[in-house]
# Entry
Amino acid sequence: MSAILNLEIKNTTDATRGQPLAARVLARKDELEDALADLAPREVLLRQAIETALATVYSLMTGDLVHPSDVIARDLNRWLERNKHLAQEITRAQRR
# Structure
């Protein structure tokens, strides 16, 4: 039981579980934008992965983010799950 209490939440997607979808998406988007700004120039593959994730979420955020259609809500949720570990080491270091 104590092991369960000592679990550290390692990403904002899991940390924001239970909050509205819009808040979760915006938190993760902001986190990835910050991670992108902190990347070294030589980290080309990670930069491309973050840029792709951000381009995807930007395209999904064109409508009413607070009241998205079922299709957009599903895609936003999939985006969160697909990208929850992306740049995790950078974002963890930023929180310290």
Summary: The chain has six helices and no strands. The CA atoms of residues 25 and 73 lie 10 Å apart.
